[in-house]
Write a structure and sequence with these properties.
It is a single chain. This protein has 537 residues and is of the alpha/beta class. Among the domains are: 163 residues, Rossmann fold; 49 residues, no CATH class. The chain has 17 helices and 26 strands. Strands 1-18-19-21-22 form a 5-stranded antiparallel beta sheet. Strand 23 and strand 24 form a beta hairpin. Helix 1 crosses helix 2, helix 2 crosses helix 6 and helix 8 packs across helix 9.
Length: 537
């Protein structure tokens, strides 16, 4: 078992976080930060190709209007609103509006079908549905008769819907108008609703992928998130001057934690990517200080640089290889805890100036202080390679049911090939079967309306069963060896964890995905998906 010190809002390691005092819910922390930050930029979003800044004061006002309007329309404390939209500032306005008036936001992926939307809305007992545009509205219209519990549908973007009339559908501007009227007639109502929030209230529902059945709504509380912020602040603190790029779906716990929750803790600036297709362009434009991504994106960045190398001149390829080699040698000393020789430092400084700095600029990492990866296995060779070019990518581990992060590597304590050590204040152990289990303030409240599944996931003494098999070294660093359900047992009785093999194969720029099979067989077989774009180039 691995246990570390409990984080606190006002600990010796966090003496300057005075804005957290007296904030025992995320709604109260949201109000406090908006008051403190005022017109400072909270978000940036592109409009007609130009980045536009939106302040913390605007964040609060619009959330207030939405919250008060939803109350007028009949929303009650403890009820759920579902948000079906790509990442944008309005997503967050509804997110904050909901928690400030005691409701529970639940995200829906824009890739979900109409039937999936109906299931999620009904399972969560949602009273309101927020859709981004006409495309998402069509999904509602297709299955509206299957969602009798919905009171209203709110559309963010009216383009193409100017003549649309439906008693159940209203547009965002109309909602803002209602909210302004409510704020004028009862100026203290919104603050009073925020004051009613309690730490054990459900802050959000996040639906799991449902690979082994129907998706389940994980109830994440305010105290779960406050625990995460306090804990992470002790090992990977952010700065108010930090720029971030939000591009993963806000339905996902990882993006929600870093682009919404930790932003509220540290008052950073979040920039919204225009779309998943423009992430690389937006990275170069924003040049974030902190960047959190799934392994597939790090693999794509690596592939792009490898293709650029192959397309360069012979001298360019030679310089690229020499620069990366110098970075690799330096990384070896650092990872082994040895001082970097003076001569190697000089050589590395030259190649960093001549080549590596330009590589970082080309991928939008010229200001990067910390990169992070999680949600899936990543090749250790890839982490070493990024470290060699001056982009520290730190691997961590977590899942929806532990509100985001359970173990983490840091710049100061980093062991490549591991998922890191237990975050401060939490506990981690291995069961008799080798399953990684978690306990602490980050563990969720349970599944929405599903006590049977909750009982399956939590032990009687409160440990969360992750379903991941792993090991731990004598310094408290954990390594995942596979999923309990994915372990292959060959005809000869040998246990194989396919994730390690698959991760090594995906290190190739020409492999998009790989799946190893072989249960009850004498041999293993690998199915490989070719990265068509990289192969063609």
């Amino acid at each position: 078992m691995n246990v570390t010190a409990m984080p606190t809002w006002n600990s010796a390691t966090n003496p300057v976080r005075s804005e957290w005092l007296d904030c025992d819910t995320m709604a109260k922390l949201f109000r406090k930060q908006c008051q403190l930050q005022g017109k400072r930029t909270a978000h940036r979003e592109k409009n007609l190709g130009i980045w536009e800044a939106h302040g913390w004061d605007d964040y609060y006002e619009r959330s207030k209007w939405i919250g008060l309007a939803l109350i007028r329309l009949g929303l009650k404390r403890g009820e759920v609103i579902s948000i079906l939209s790509e990442d944008n500032k309005e997503w967050l306005y509804f997110d904050m509006a909901a928690i400030c008036v005691g409701a529970i936001p639940s995200g829906v992926y824009t890739t979900d079908s109409a039937s999936q939307l109906a299931y999620l809305v009904n399972d969560s007992d949602s009273r309101f549905l927020i859709v981004e545009n006409d495309e998402q509205l069509d999904k509602f219209l297709e299955v509206r008769n299957e969602m009798p519990g919905l009171a209203k549908v709110i559309v963010l973007d009216p383009e193409g819907l100017r003549d649309f009339q439906d008693d159940q559908v209203i547009f965002l501007d109309e909602l803002y108008g209602m909210g302004k009227e409510e704020a004028a007639s009862d100026p203290g109502r919104f603050d009073a609703e925020i004051d009613k929030s309690r730490p054990d209230d459900v802050r959000m529902l996040i639906y799991t992928s449902g690979t082994t059945g129907r998706p389940k709504g994980a109830m994440i509380t305010h105290s779960n998130i406050l625990f995460q912020i306090a804990s992470l602040s002790q090992v990977i603190p952010s700065k108010s001057s930090d720029e971030q790029l939000c591009f993963l779906p806000l339905c996902h716990v990882l993006e929600r934690l870093f682009s919404v929750e930790t932003q509220l803790g540290f008052a950073t600036t979040v920039n919204f990517a225009e779309s998943p297709e423009t992430v690389f362009d937006n990275l170069r434009e924003v040049s974030p200080h902190v960047f959190v991504a799934v392994p597939r994106l790090w693999e794509k960045i690596y592939s792009r640089l490898q293709i650029m190398r192959k397309e360069s001149t012979a001298i360019g390829r030679w310089a690229f290889d020499r620069a990366v080699s110098a970075g690799m040698k330096r990384q070896e000393h650092i990872s082994e805890g040895k001082p970097v020789p003076f001569g190697l430092s000089l050589v590395h400084a030259f190649w960093d100036f001549a080549v590596l700095a330009n590589l970082r600029r080309m991928i939008g990492m010229d200001r990067i202080r910390r990169g992070a990866t999680g949600a899936a296995p990543i090749s250790p060779e890839l982490l070493v390679w990024f470290g060699a070019i001056g982009v520290p990518v730190l691997e961590g581990f977590g899942q929806t049911e532990c509100s985001g992060v359970a173990t983490i590597n840091t710049i100061e304590r980093n062991k490549i090939s591991t998922i890191g050590f237990t975050i401060p204040g939490a506990e981690t152990r291995l069961s008799a079967e080798g399953e990684i289990q978690l306990r602490g303030g980050h563990v969720f409240k349970g599944y929405w309306n599903n006590p049977a599944k909750t009982a399956e996931t939590l032990t009687e003494d409160g440990w969360l069963r992750t379903g991941d098999v792993g090991r731990v070294d004598n310094e408290g660093f954990y390594t995942i060896t596979g999923r309990i359900k994915d372990i292959i047992i060959t005809a000869g009785g040998k246990n194989i964890t396919p994730a390690e093999i698959e991760s090594a194969l995906k290190f190739s720029p020409y492999v998009a995905d790989a799946v190893v099979i072989g249960d009850k067989r004498k041999y293993l077989t690998c199915l490989i998906m070719i990265d068509q774009e990289n192969v063609e180039n």
